[in-house]
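Appendix B.2, paired examples.
Example (i):
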Amino acid sequence: MRYYLIVGEASGDLHASNLMAELKRQDVEAEFRFYGGDKMAAVGGTLVKHYKELAYMGFIPVLVHLPQILQNMRQCKSDIEQWKPDVVILVDYPGFNLDIAKFVHEKGICKVYYYISPKIWAWKEYRIKNIKRDVDELFSILPFEVQWFDERGYKVHYVGNPCVDAVEHWKEERGEVDHLAKKQIAILAGSRRQEIKDNLRMMLTCASKFEGYRLVIAGAPNIEEAYYQKYIPKGMEVEIRFGQTYQVLSESVAALVTSGTATLETAILRVPQVVCYATPVGKLISWVRSKVLKVKYISLVNLIVDREIVQELVADRMTKENIIQCLGDILPEGKARQQMLEDYEEMNRILGGAGASKRAAEEMVRLLKA
């Protein structure tokens, strides 16, 4: 069968590549064509466009690059129509992918599957109407989504979380590391330039207050080192390592993490963390968040267990004083460290074991053959 996949960022490239590998095991005649990244290309198939050409986030970047975004959309639709796949598999990235879903559905080209649901439970809940209309099957990786969608009359498949697969695979290759044997704090400042600009300098300044710890930045794959250097305080010794996020975390005794998939990966690796997400005009953003967001938390860790097990310092809560206090609490001998590690075990039990990619591929192939 022919599979057309679309992802819009690095994490999507990782999870889609694992899904593709499993689809090949389930369907020996599988053909792939995709908007994706290097990891997907390594599995095989035709890379039509790299996600780096798609990843525009925020109002101003989207506005500036609107002609390019619209051109990418037109090219993608035309390519799908010409290639005539058996299924289009969309991976997160809702702004682009939901428009593609509508096009494919209206044209009647093929089935539309969504792997890694858009986070419409957090905001833009109205998008569920589009999903019900245009998406044939949705494969969820977060357990609480099943009930959320069910209450709104839409059945989804929970297949487990692919981050568990990715971490377990890495552990099998590299082995366990004793966090406490290392005097290192990991800094994960986000995967987008605006996040790094807003967060990195304060994260480093606060972490440097704890003497005796090396500071290591886990660099995002699509950001050059020179960009990070702009926000490292002058004279501060900081190492930047690219393509080694799990290794950096596994060698660290604690981490400061900008919200996103990284908070979940950090918890799966059992590294105590503080979530840091600064924004311009913090008080205004906090007010807007309280009015717009439909969830109590922004980190996946807290959403999964439905309570705050990691501190979220967001908008006006992200101050130097708060970061230093919260980081100190999770370092060795800190008063909150052991409880966080115990809460991580609860979160991992809720997520379930490895095998998400395999379960998703099996169900997709079964449904397509049926």
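Example (ii):
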Amino acid sequence: MNKKYLTILSGNPRGGERTWESLYENVLDALNSDLAICTGDKWLKNQSFLDIAKFNWIIDEPNDWTTYYEDNFDGTWKEFFLRGMDTGLYSSGLIHFALKDIILKNFSNEILNYDFIIYSRFDQFYLSKHKYFDSEEIWVPEGEDYFGLCDRHAIVPVRYIKQYLNICSYVDSSSALNLKADNLNCEVVYLNQLKDNGLFNYVKRYDRTQFTSALKNDFTNWRIPKYKIYFFGKLMIKYPDEYISSFESISQKKEIIFSKYYLLYINYLYLKIRRIFGKIKKIGT
């Protein structure tokens, strides 16, 4: 393995230490990847990733993220975001897109020293070793597209990274404002940004082996976790379908059953059984 990886986590730190330990073992160690974090200073509480990260891109987070756009853009961004008030585009996308812009404008020199960039979030729990990629495609896990393209995790060849991160220029453009979409959410915008700058032609999909986690009191701008993971501390599932598909795509189930994640596998079986009985009950009514 001779390709150099940098994993970037951006956003609010959610998921807790067990989630981040899965990152260290199954991504950083598996790919010999360096770690960069980009988050606001108000979210930091001596988390382990502060010592693990090679790059700590800590920002003075504004109370109102619209001020970032007012200071840096003068196009149609505001009108565009207001179209997504009820879809998470305004509450969540406004922040995540700005973080990409901050990384692009301030930390490109560090990024360009690597061959591949894994752009992800703090709340991804990895069940097995991350697949190694050395091709010139942009790799995105299957599923969780919501009429667009899943924006939680991507492996991006460094030659495309500036275009990939430059989503704010898209949302500030007439191309975005003219976008016709019934459900204008973050995933739809992400998909159309990649189409607009020609990167979607390079997107490939791979089987998902990670899920979005949360702790009960984690701050969130959009979806509140409701599903507890039994016998595994305070960890919660944010998206049950994603949790199930992550286990079903692991070809060697023994990898999980005889690992420290076996309790997670029991929760997967519990969810599957609940769904089976739910379908039977529905048929019988």
